[in-house]
Amino acid sequence: MTLIDLANPTRFLALTARVLPWLAAATVILLTIGLYQSALAPDDYQQGATVKIMFIHVPNAWLSMFVWGVMSIASLGTLVWRHPLADVAAKAAAPIGAAFTFLALLTGSLWGRPMWGTYWEWDARLTSVLILFLMYLGLMALWRAVDDPSRAARAAAVLTLVGAINLPIIKFSVDWWNTLHQPASVMRMGGSSLDKSFLIPLLVMAVAFTLLFVTLHLAAMRNEILRRRVRSLQMMQASRVAFSSEMGTGSREETASKGAA
Amino acid sequence: MIMSLGPYASFIVTSYAAVALVVVILIGWIVLDYRSQTQRLRELDRSGVTRRSGRSAVDTP
């Protein structure tokens, strides 16, 4: 099945019906393994047991950017290729991305209090992620503010692509500015600086959360397609009612004019 | 085996609980939204509104 085949919403719904149970099962299995490995991971020599927060903070932080990346590609799909499912994908991803970004901020804050002595610091990394969270909320508000989905899609696509400028700023903020947030320790030149006892649970949790996102995103896209189907049927129903009442008024007027004559 | 979380146990437990809560809310919202949309499609189908293709409104393969 190619991307062109998936342009047909009915085919996409058939695909999600087949794939979703498997994706959900794989997510549960990987999350269970990841949580088990996180529980068994040793304490860090500096952070102690607080290092366990990293196993959920880092996947959420990765996903906060990854989801915006997915939305940016979908936005290109809306503006350039006019793929029928592109704006469905972008709209469905926004609340999920907002939830992951919120969790990245919250878990980072809960880690920061014992480690840095503060819940919040206006440094470049934290501030740029907060801006990302606000952009997610703004995008969701924009989708709700415009009634026509195709008009909303174009405006949201432009905003998403402009907002994508924030992704490299978030990623490289720890290198460009002097921040309280530590520099990259997994994805960096020269390989990861983490010990395997931390790296393996972290990667398993990252893959598990990514699968969770894919599962939730497909389910949310399915809901959005059904919502649009409901909308178009309701409009069809409303136009039929208007047409029949118009016909009724027309025939009554005709009868009245005949009677007057 | 009882896991020792040290002096900052409350921060660790709160983090995991918050993630679990938000993920459960996300799943619940998506499941409820799906039920709501299929319910509305069934109601439209009962009122005789069909898609241009002639298929039933609830026809989701």
Topology of this protein?
The complex is a heterodimer of chains A (261) and B (61).
Chain A: H1 9-40, H2 54-81, H3 86-116, H4 124-145, H5 149-163, H6 166-176, H7 196-260
Helix pairs in contact in A: 1-7, 2-3, 2-5, 2-7, 3-4, 3-5, 3-7, 4-5, 4-6
Chain B: H1 9-46
Short structural summary:
The complex is a heterodimer of chains A (261) and B (61). With 261 residues, chain A is mainly alpha-helical.
Radius of gyration of chain A over alpha carbons?
25 Å
| Helical content of chain B (DSSP H or I, runs of 4+) | 55-70%
Largest sheet descriptor of chain A: none
Query: What is the 3D form of chain B?
Result: rod-shaped
Total E-strand runs of chain B:
0
Return the structural class of chain A: mainly alpha
Structure description:
With 261 residues, chain A is mainly α. Chain A has one domain (21-174, 193-238). Chain A has helices at 9-40, 54-81, 86-116, 124-145, 149-163, 166-176, 196-260. In chain A, helix 2 packs antiparallel against helix 3 (86-116). Chain B is mainly α and 61 residues long. Helices cover 62% and strands 0% of the residues of chain B. The longest helix of chain B has 38 residues, at 9-46. The mean pLDDT of chain B is 85. Chain A binds chain B through residues 10, 13-14, 17, 39, 43, 48-50, 52-53, 56-57, 60, 95-96, 99, 102-103, 106-107, 110-111, 113-114, 212, 216, 219-220, 222-223, 226-227, 229-230, 233-234, 236-237, 240, and chain B through 3-9, 11-12, 14-16, 18-19, 22-23, 25-27, 29-31, 33-34, 37-38, 40-41, 44, 47, 49, 51, 57, 60-61. Chain B: It is found in: Cell inner membrane. Chain B: Pfam families: CcmD. Chain B: One of its GO terms (biological process) is cytochrome complex assembly.
